[in-house]
Amino acid sequence: MSTIMWRHRIFLRKTNQKMKKRIVIFPLFLFMLGLSYGQTPQAFSYQAVARDANGDCLGDATISVRFSIRDSSSTGPILYQEQHIAIQTNAQGLFSLPIGADTTLATGAGQISDFANLYWTNQLRWLQVDIDPAGGATFVMVGSQQLLTVPYAMSAGNGLQLSTINQDEFMRWHDPDGKRNGVIGGNGSGLTNGYLGLYNSTEETKAELYSGKAGTDEYGVFALYGSNGTLNHAMSVFSSNGRSRGAQSWRDDQGVTQVAVYINTNNEGIIEADIKNFVMDHPLDPAKEIAYASLEGPEAAAYERGTALLTNGEARIEFSEHFGLIANPETMTIILTPRSAESMGLAAMEYTSTGFKVKELQQAKGNYEFDWEAKAVRNGFEDYQVIRNKRKDDLADIRKR
Questions:
Q1: CA 18, CA 148: separation in Å to the nearest integer?
Q2: What is the CA 16 to chain-centroid distance, rounded?
Q3: pLDDT computed for residue 19 by the predictor
Q4: Could you give the CA distance from residue 252 to residue 226 in angstroms, rounded to a whole number?
Q5: Taking all residues of the chain, what is their mean pLDDT, rounded to a whole number?
Q6: How far, in Å, CA of 399 to CA of 115, rounded?
Q7: Contacts of 116 (CB under 8 A, 6+ apart)
Q8: What average pLDDT does the segment 62-69 reach?
Q9: 220, exposed or middle or buried, with CB in 10 Å at 0-12, 13-18, 19+?
């Protein structure tokens, strides 16, 4: 527990009809209210002894105390203020009051109505103490003191906030101008899921990492926002069938998905975009590049091609191992191109997963080279749907905060 000893005396003169009495307030300690399980509360305690001018304790007395936290100096603007009406000293004149623990005690006179919203980093703060020795609300200032290390221990940044309703913690930090630039806390109904948010110089959300929840489904979300505030990159899950399949999307300046990579409900990896390009440097002009667009079609297919030698009008083409493993021979088509003007024509037959047979037409016995190309639907993708219902979204529950 950190402590600060205040060594000055604060005098208050009170006059009644019979005599003049001076009340002396001796502040003893300003300390943190510690919790055994390590949480840092949004409050600190003020403790003092009230004595009269002769040094005698004002025991069992009823007094009122008002605390004001001022910015930058003892005469700076009031940031926060609260008052404690009709509190009792003990037999030795001792009283101890928590500052910031009870939101109903805030007077609303300062710029901040909730003590938990005070930020402390790189800021000078002063505590002003006002007293009404009669226990009412007619206060007279009795002293002011700069706050040093104690309240700042509440925050390595700018404040750990404890919700009295949900018992949920929030860590917020700010830039030197007091603008919020980050928060760690809860998300969703009841704030039961974690959340990390990063903000720009005007407190606009630019990055989020949080745990989302939809019904009984819980999942992680990472989202980035562009300069105009729209979502432009997100990683989460496919929004249907259990939300257990990964997804990622890139959006345009209107927040509309233009590129998506995700696992669909058949556990197939899908890439969606307007154009798929192959790009390489121009071999002769370093200021340019060459971009080829991928050929599109209505099938999830594969191909293999090559050149072979026809001998006595016949040839056997053997597929490479990888093509034979992925190609469905029942969907195969073959293209043959003779490299001889004397050819009588070629026919392909006997398709299998390992290859096919080629014969020259009209039972000719030619000997020459020919080119071949085989195309086939990939095994397992025979029911590829070209026309389909629109997906609602490739990511689940991405939203701007």
A1: 42
A2: 62
A3: 37
A4: 9
A5: 81
A6: 30
A7: 42, 100, 159, 161, 162
A8: 93
A9: middle
Residue with tokens 């190609």: 327
pLDDT digits 0-9 by tens, 237-290 = 887 667 888 999 999 999 888 999 988 888 888 888 888 888 889 999 999 999
| C-alpha–C-alpha distance, residues 6 and 31, integer Å | 12
Residues facing 310 on adjacent strands: 368
Rg (the chain; Cα; Å): 39
- Which SS3 state, helix, strand or coil, does residue 239 take? coil
> Residue 158: enclosing H or E segment and its boundaries?
none
- CA–CA separation, 266 vs 337, rounded Å? 39
Check if the beta carbon of residue 33 is closer than 8 Å to that of residue 98.
Answer: yes
Question: What DSSP designation does 150 have?
Answer: H
| CB distance 238 to 264 below 8 Å | yes
Q: Which of these, 299, 302, 300, 298, lies nearest to 375 by C-alpha position? A: 302
The token duo for 296 is: 């599109």
Question: In angstroms, how far is CA 140 from the centroid of its own chain?
Answer: 48
Residue 382: strand, helix, or coil: coil
State the pLDDT at residue 359: 98
What is the predicted pLDDT for the residue at 216? Answer: 82
- Tell me whether strands 314-318 and 289-293 are parallel, antiparallel or unpaired: unpaired
Phi, psi of 325 (to 5 degrees): -75, -30
- Tell me the torsion sign for CA atoms 330, 331, 332, 333: positive
Helix (H, G, I), strand (E, B) or coil at 362: helix
140-147 sheet: strands from edge to edge = 78-88, 62-71, 125-132, 140-147
CA distance linking residue 280 with residue 289, whole number of Å: 6
Q: Which two tokens stand for residue 212?
A: 């989302």
203's CB contacts (< 8 A; 6+ apart) are: 179, 180, 181
Q: Which amino acid is at 283?
A: P
Decide if 265 contacts 280 (C-beta within 8 A).
no
Mean pLDDT on 37-47: 64
Helices marked H in 64-217 = 149-152
Q: What is the pTM of this model?
A: 0.54
Which residues are CB-contacts of 338 (< 8 A; sequence separation ≥ 6)? 310, 345, 346, 368, 370
Q: How many CB atoms lie within 10 A of CB 205?
A: 17
Measuring CA to CA, which residue among 181, 182, 157, 183 is closest to residue 169?
A: 183
